[in-house]
């Protein structure tokens, strides 16, 4: 076995987290493990600098934010808290297909006394609900086919008033090893261990992400690699 494997091509495989009949107890354990990995990897902190750059364009009334495929809601909740510390209230809407994930997100928001709506929603099938100052999506695109990605990015573009930010894994052998190591250090969930490896193999490179941005008609989108293991796509709507 190679110490650092080569991953020249994308490999998609069904992840356990996506199974409709997944045991809810195991599902919640995996969601909490992923939230822990997000905190360790600074998932919200990778997105926040892009939001800070456009804060001057926001009124002091609540900033509206949509998180697509929110999972347990840890990323938008963290971003909302960062906004509050910067003097901006916010109204968060999080969408996810999984009722178990939505329940976890609602519980987390309630514990923190955060104004947020988490809704069970099929983002691939249905139009996104309204327009928002900020639209974010973290660790979702690698679950999708290329056609699904382009269609979703177009819907997210239409829902964006000011800034669209997408963050996902960067496919590489080094990142595969880092995700394997972090998963085992930070979570006891066998689902996290299994799905983390599959996620990196199904992820996209920066070059591939740039191609999606072009096909989705996101002019002047900027995509940068971010440590650890990710890239971040940013697109701003011109006033």
Distance between the termini: 52 Å
Mean pLDDT: 95
The CATH superfamily bears the name Vaccinia Virus protein VP39
Tell me the CATH topology: Rossmann fold
What is the overall shape? Answer: globular
Radius of gyration: 17 Å
Structural class: alpha/beta
The number of distinct β-strands equals: 7
Helix count equals: 8
Oligomer: single chain
Largest sheet, if any? 7 strands, mixed
- What is the N-to-C succession of helices and strands? HHEHEHEEHEHHHEE
Number of domains: 1
Classified by CATH, the class is Alpha Beta
Spans with pLDDT under 50 lasting ≥5 residues? none
| Helical coverage, percent range | 40-55%
- Could you give the order of strands across the largest sheet? 3-2-1-4-5-7-6
CATH architecture field = 3-Layer(aba) Sandwich
Proportion of residues in extended strands: 15-25%
What does this structure look like?
The protein is α/β, with parallel strands linked by helices and 239 residues long. It has one domain (17-236): Vaccinia Virus protein VP39 (Rossmann fold). It is 44% helix and 20% strand. The longest helix is centred in the N-terminal third of the chain and has 18 residues, at 24-41.
Question: In summary, what is this structure?
Answer:
The chain has 239 residues and is of the alpha/beta class. The chain has one domain (17-236): Rossmann fold.
Secondary structure elements and their pairing?
Elements: H1 24-41, H2 43-52, E1 63-68, H3 74-85, E2 90-96, H4 99-111, E3 116-120, E4 132-138, H5 146-159, E5 160-169, H6 173-186, H7 190-202, H8 206-215, E6 222-226, E7 230-236
Parallel strand pairs: 1-2, 1-4, 2-3, 4-5
Antiparallel strand pairs: 5-7, 6-7
Helix pairs in contact: 2-3, 6-7
